[in-house]
């Protein structure tokens, strides 16, 4: 499994996931840059994602939804890209969305940094999410963020191998 470490730092409102992939940095970056590839791994395997808008350019708003296969219910989300240094760094705000992909009231927003570095013939990815408060972090942890993010990241090697 690619996920090698998960660290929760409640004092600093931070969740960090580390993963190692059997692919070069550029290949991992390409997965995040291509919405059709990203759809295959954004979210847990049982709740597939569809990106509506996607462009890794600072200031661009990306939108997506995840569809519950049993109920058909759509869970919307958005990113606001804040920094890009291809192929090694991506920063964005990530939040839950309403029907029109606007920030959902009462739902937390995280500031995310994804760093990709060459490591032992592959890529080490460090995914860091910072929340506004310990309560916001706890809210996503209670929603199963660690399990959902880990299962999503653990799908990546299979997509990279294609």
TrEMBL record:
Record Pfam families: AHSA1
Domain of life: Bacteria
Gene3D superfamilies found in the cross-reference section: 3.30.530.20
SUPFAM superfamilies named among the record's database cross-references: Bet v1-like (SSF55961)
Sequence ranges assigned to domain Activator of Hsp90 ATPase homologue 1/2-like C-terminal in this UniProt record: 22-160
Family: Belongs to the AHA1 family.
Protein name: SRPBCC domain-containing protein
Species of the source: Gordonia caeni
């Amino acid at each position: 499994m690619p996920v090698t470490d998960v660290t929760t730092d409640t004092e600093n409102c931070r969740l960090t996931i580390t993963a190692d992939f059997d692919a070069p940095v550029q290949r991992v970056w390409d997965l995040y840059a291509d919405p059709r590839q990203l759809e295959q791994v954004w979210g847990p395997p049982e709740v597939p994602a569809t990106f509506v808008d996607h462009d890794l350019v600072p200031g661009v708003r990306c939108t997506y939804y995840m569809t519950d296969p049993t109920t058909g219910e759509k869970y919307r989300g958005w990113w606001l890209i804040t920094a890009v240094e291809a192929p090694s760094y991506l920063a964005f705000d990530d939040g839950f969305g309403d029907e029109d992909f606007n920030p959902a009231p009462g739902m937390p927003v995280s500031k995310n940094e994804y760093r990709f570095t060459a490591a032992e013939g592959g890529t080490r990815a460090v995914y860091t999410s910072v929340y506004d408060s310990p309560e916001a972090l706890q809210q996503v942890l209670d929603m199963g963020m660690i399990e959902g993010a880990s299962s999503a990241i653990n799908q990546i090697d299979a997509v990279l191998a294609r």
